[in-house]
């Protein structure tokens, strides 16, 4: 089976079909998402496995359009400073890579450079001393994105959201100091249909 196509067997399975059809969407319609749908997506995240069943995740949710734009712009400012520090003299190249093909200058030109106009932003946190939190939250986030797709929504994981902790408005999220922001998931009704990227196929090794 080619990586870019969905076989008949997979198409017959709703779960596998959802996995193959999910895309990272970075353009959204100006349509709010019902809170009942958000709750269903959160519940799907809560069903993810976690180390020793600690279920370490907590969710901080933004749905206000202007609030989301404000957080997006503040995170963009911090991101620019971080890139300048980590890639001196090569900020444009770093921004080009990390912002998924956006021009470096667009970081400040776009009204919502981090969350791409999505009507829902969900920050996911866990306790700072939890060494397995990243793995647990990754599985939780995947559950949420697959649930979103199954419910007719699109999504995208936003790793740059972790820089919210360095913004001057971070306190507005009311995240305790004991918790760390790992990433955010954005949700909404997509206004684009990204093509599937070719998948690497020579990375499985069977050991007898």
The CATH topology comes to: NADH Oxidase
CATH top level assignment? Alpha Beta
Largest sheet: 4 strands, antiparallel
Radius of gyration: 18 Å
Widest β-sheet, arrangement of strands: 1-2-4-3
Kindly report how far apart the N and C termini lie.
24 Å
- Taken from the alpha-carbon principal axes, the silhouette is globular
Number of domains: 1
* Model regions low in confidence, pLDDT < 50 over at least 5 residues: 100-104
**What does the average pLDDT come to?**
89
How many H/I helices? 7
- Which CATH architecture would you pick? 3-Layer(aba) Sandwich
Total beta strands = 4
Proportion of beta-strand residues? 5-15%
| Topology pattern, helix = H, strand = E | HHHEHHHEHEE
Share of helix among residues? 25-40%
* Helix/strand structural class: alpha+beta
Task: Let me know the CATH homologous superfamily.
Answer: NADH Oxidase
Q: What's the structural blueprint in terms of helices and strands?
A:
Layout: H1 8-11, H2 14-21, H3 35-46, E1 58-62, H4 65-86, H5 91-98, H6 106-109, E2 120-127, H7 133-150, E3 154-158, E4 179-188
Antiparallel strand pairs: 1-2, 2-4, 3-4
Helix pairs in contact: 3-7
Q: What can you tell me about this protein's structure?
A:
- By secondary structure, the protein is α+β, with helices and mostly antiparallel strands.
- The chain has one domain: NADH Oxidase (3-Layer(aba) Sandwich), CATH 3.40.109.
- 37% of the residues lie in helices and 13% in strands.
- It is built from 7 helices and 4 strands.
- The protein has helices spanning 8-11, 14-21, 35-46, 65-86, 91-98, 106-109, 133-150, and strands at residues 58-62, 120-127, 154-158, 179-188.
- The protein has a 4-stranded antiparallel sheet.
- Helix 3 (35-46) crosses helix 7 (133-150).
